Amino acid sequence: IALLFGGAVLGATFLFGGSLGSGYVNLPGIRYAVIGMAIAAFCLELLMRRRYPSPGRSYRIYADVAGERLCLRGFVDTGNGLKDFAGNGAIVADRRAVEGSLSDGLVARIKSDDAPVPVHTFLYRAVGGNGELVGFLPDSVTIAADSGKYAAKCYIVIGDGISKEGMNALLSPDIVLHGADRRKWKENVFKE
């Protein structure tokens, strides 16, 4: 969108006799059209990026990490305030679920300096005290519910004691979702 917008502004500048160095189009009509296009692009971006539809639902999380697939089941935890340096929310996954889905070698590499994916230390503060957790950024994350599937770019933080009633992950309400597919699923397209 930014490339198209920039090209439209540059084209309008040349079309109406502006020079490349001026950076200003001296026609009020074009100025309003450019501002309108900028507002439309901003609104389109807001519509494309969605936050979680509902905290009371169960989600399936599929993360691809260095050629391996991590499968989790979780729910939105409004108390999960972990965010990466860009302000995006994180998923806290139970250590046993991560170690059960990924190979021992990959888990050891994630915990060491030889990680095949970006690794970040997350500081947390909870009722029981403060501490640090290690998180990694998978190659891709897909979050699925009965209403559709969403792509997300977020860290998965490894924690202890997350498993409860078949759930092994806590999703932050601040995770930004991309590419919502609103069609109902006839079958489960992901293999657990």
Structure description:
This protein is α+β, with helices and mostly antiparallel strands and 192 residues long. Helix content is 26%, strand content 31%. An 11-stranded mixed β-sheet has the order 1-11-8-7-2-3-10-4-9-6-5. Strand 7 and strand 8 (148-152) form a beta hairpin. Helix 1 (2-15) runs antiparallel to helix 2 (28-48). The longest helix has 21 residues, at 28-48. 23% of the residues are buried.
Task: Give the strand tally.
Answer: 11
- Terminal CA distance reads 35 Å
Question: Secondary-structure element order, as H and E?
Answer: HHEEEEHHEEEEEEE
Strand order of the largest sheet: 1-11-8-7-2-3-10-4-9-6-5
Helical content stands at 25-40%
Radius of gyration: 22 Å
Secondary-structure-based class equals: alpha+beta
The largest sheet is: 11 strands, mixed
| Sequence stretches where pLDDT stays below 50 over 5 or more residues | 180-192
Number of helices: 4
User: What's the overall geometry?
Assistant: elongated
Describe the oligomeric state of these chains in a short phrase: single chain
Mean pLDDT: 77
Beta fraction: 25-35%
